[in-house]
Amino acid sequence: MNIRKLSLNYGRYRVRFYNATIDNIRETASASDVPQAMSDVAKREVQHHSNLADDWWNVNGSLQALHSLNSIRVPFIRDGLIARGSIDAKAVSTTHVLENQQILEVGCGGGILTEQLARLDAKITGIDLSDVLINVAREHLQQESNARLLKNITYKIEPIEIHVKDKCNFYDAVVISEVLEHIDDKVAFLTACVQCLKPGGSVFITTLNQTIPMWLGGILIGEYVLNAVPKGTHHWEQLISPLNVQRILDTMGCQTILVNGSIYEFWRNSWRWINSTSMCYALQAIKTGSF
Can you say which residues are annotated as belonging to the binding site? Predict the structure, then answer.
């Protein structure tokens, strides 16, 4: 299947070239390595999330739903890796369950998920385009004063297209949580993510489905009526269905082995799994060979 034909299944969504960069990217990416142009969509998304930096670690603040999501996404990742048989049986029921697992979190923001995976002893690298949010993540990590976390976490201000140059076929897992719905060109983005994975490694995705219930309940009511999520966080044309994610991953030699539907109950700030992907979903796919 020609990967460009996937755009026909996205409704109003059209795949565009993803210029994954931001002004003044620092750290490992040199000026000559990074594309000079950044799409308006990418710039808007990075700025929107950077504006939330001061409230990022407030568990009762504007990002409380993201904090609450850890209750289901951390076990989803943990159990997905256990099911692959790559975890030492002796470590399964311990807080060291992810010991020696090299994990990349793409779009880590201020580190809400990163720190929780590191507490399970994963060696995790978090990358993001926002220098503001990476600084938030580093500051919070220092405040934790936890030697285990400091040892397990590395943060970088770096686009995935640059990161893959040095980390091709390197990671046991790549985590893309609440990020794909903010990406302009999902094909280019997922390509680089999959290339970072070892053969046999897992990609974990949590995101929003492109459905009418999601638009009405999640975006219109959730953001603009109830203020459960900051206004302007999600845009209908950037959402994508699990079927289309699976089709894209198929072309990259990744076999989807699990898709779970989920829903956020704002009135009690709680997430739970449901038997429908009409709102949100979590997906695990396995890289079956070299790509």
Answer: 73, 107, 128, 177-178, 181-182
Q: Please count the helices (runs of H) and the strands (runs of E) in the chain.
A: 10, 8
Residues in binding site for S-adenosyl-L-methionine? 73, 107, 128, 177
Cβ atoms of 62 and 55 within 8 Å: the answer is: yes
pLDDT in tens, 234-273: 888 899 999 999 999 999 999 999 999 999 999 999 999 9
Burial (CB count within 10 angstroms: exposed 0-12, middle 13-18, buried 19+), residue 54? exposed
Entry pTM: 0.86
The residues that bridge with 103 in the sheet, in sequence order, are 124, 173
The tens digit of pLDDT for each residue in 86-130 reads 898 889 989 999 999 999 999 999 999 999 999 999 999 999 999
Q: In what order do the strands lie in the sheet with 197-208?
A: 153-157, 123-128, 102-106, 171-177, 197-208, 280-287, 254-265, 270-274
Domains of the chain: 40-287 (3.40.50.150)
**Both tokens assigned to 169:** 């076929």
Q: Please enumerate, by residue number, every residue annotated as part of a binding site for Mg(2+).
A: 178, 181-182
